[in-house]
Amino acid sequence: MAEKLKIGALISGGGTNLQAIIDACEAGEINAEIAFVGSDHPGVKGLDRAAKHGIPSFVMEYGPILKNPEDYPAAPGLDLDDVISKQHLFYGEGALERAEPYCAVRAVAEAQLLKEMDKFEYDVLVLAGFMRIFTPYIIDKINKGHDLPRIMNIHPALLPAFPGVDGYGDTFKYGCKVGGCTVHFVDYGEDSGPIIGQKAYTIDPGDTEADIRKKGLELEWRLYPECIGLYADGRLSLTKRGRRTVVEVSK
């Protein structure tokens, strides 16, 4: 059997997707193991899940850094102009003025996060309810020297519809008849990276927002381990389709 894929996981809360990945690893459903769990908030349940399974963990709080970035070391090797030119978060009038402080401060936090993660060996980083948007600074450092992107995220909507923080809520409010979830590689935008896998559910008459969240979460817990398994088995590749980069899955 090929060497197990080493997974780094980042969380911000309860870690139900983390638990699904842990369970899939321990059951041998995917050829992988979790090397560490990191959180940007202390005391969350996801950290308890890691401890229960003997997985090393750490906390790197963004909050204090975002409030007082001058109290922390500068981000090593930061080329702010390069980071700003690559990011796809700010557009239109005043975009540069908004992007500069956003990227500069977050790079300080990301440097501290990298410092913690660099204590471990990992092949792929999975964002399992990690409620932070990465800048090109950290994305490029993690992906450097690799053919495939190394950061995966799960989103509670059928991208490219409803990016952002409330995919299930947006799906419900828009009156959709079908909803779902998406696993994608992280790129320089918000939930805009190449799609690895998706699952869909039907929204029945009378379903509440809570109903569709329940349906979606049950699919998330299946989809994320499946997509990690594809990565572990070497079945993913990137190709160009028009102006887009898309993921191809081999048999």
Your description of this structure?
With 251 residues, the chain is an alpha/beta fold. The protein has helices spanning 16-26, 45-52, 62-67, 80-86, 95-117, 136-143, 167-173, 209-232, and strands at 5-11, 32-39, 57-59, 124-127, 151-155, 178-185, 195-202, 236-241, 244-249. It is globular, with a radius of gyration of 18 Å.
Radius of gyration: 18 Å
Main β-sheet, spatial strand arrangement: 3-2-1-4-5-6-7
**Helix vs. strand class:** alpha/beta
Largest sheet: 7 strands, mixed
What is the share of helical residues? 25-40%
Average pLDDT taken over every residue: 97
Name the beta content range. 15-25%
The count of helical stretches stands at 8
Q: What gap, in angstroms, lies between the N and C termini?
A: 18 Å
Order of helices and strands: EHEHEHHHEHEHEEHEE
What best-fitting shape do the alpha-carbon axes yield?
globular
Which ranges are low-confidence, i.e. pLDDT below 50, for 5 or more consecutive residues?
none
What is the number of E strands? Answer: 9
